[in-house]
């Protein structure tokens, strides 16, 4: 009884089911009819090998590469000026399209590449790319700094205002007569050593030998051949009249040597020569020999 009731439909329900069934049957027939009329194409091995030329392939780009970039094998290498190169040339060099757009925007804003290193600022450019492109960059004359138009002779004259022109290998400077400007013309001598020479010359009372320049700390030995001495006139110390403080001002006389001189004068009277001091510990033969040109003895 229950099974019979399960499959029992009222008359109105049976009508609806019949309509839906017919509609479904018609739809199936229509689908089968149109599908059967479509032609199918079977690819041959030849079709799989030959592919139609695409715009990317015609222009040297690979369709599999993002943004249509040239592959590493396709990138060309040729000299170019980043200020004038067009998009085709830049793309042939292996740059990405958005990098080319950045170059165009930079130039449109008035930007100029004045030296190859300026091109390294291109956004997204890798070190490898720059190292490969740097030898190829050629900056046109119109984009070089105007200062490069100055002739070498004019530049030399201008630079002498800041850097003193040096003398040649056959020229010499008198060590006792030269001022700081002339001393700076000696190769290896700048403002520091020129002032050091003048100060040491004043303390000595004049140079007796060019080799005395070695006594200046860190003096450039290579500069010695450029100096000469003529008509040497030294300022001498009177060992019998000067005070202890005056004696010790000389670079060859220290405090203990000055004290020995004062003590000798006080105990034994005026000195007649430096040999009078040879028995003292602070006056060995080499010190006496070095000091002898700079001393005198009054009665």
pLDDT < 50 stretches: 47-73
Please give the order of strands in the largest beta sheet: 1-2
Beginning-to-end CA distance, first to last residue: 165 Å
Please trace the helix and strand order, writing H or E for each element.
Answer: HHHHHHHHEHHEEHHHE
Number of β-strand runs: 4
Shape: rod-shaped
DSSP helix count? 13
The amount of beta strand, in percent, is under 5%
CA-atom Rg in angstroms: 50 Å
User: What's the helical proportion of residues?
Assistant: 25-40%
Mean pLDDT metric: 80
Description:
The protein has 299 residues and is an all-alpha fold. The protein is built from 13 helices and four strands. The strands form two sheets. It has a two-stranded parallel sheet with strand order 1-2. Strands 3-4 form a two-stranded parallel sheet. The chain is rod-shaped and about 160 Å long.
Provide a concise account of the structure shown.
With 299 residues, this protein is mostly helical. The chain contains 13 helices and 4 strands. It is rod-shaped and about 160 Å long.
Comma- or semicolon-separated keywords:
299 residues; mainly alpha; two-stranded parallel ribbon; 4 strands; 39% helix
Outline the secondary-structure elements:
Blueprint: H1 2-6, H2 11-36, H3 45-49, H4 55-58, H5 87-92, H6 97-108, H7 127-133, H8 152-159, E1 173-174, H9 180-183, H10 191-204, E2 227-228, E3 237-238, H11 244-247, H12 255-268, H13 285-291, E4 295-296
Parallel strand pairs: 1-2, 3-4
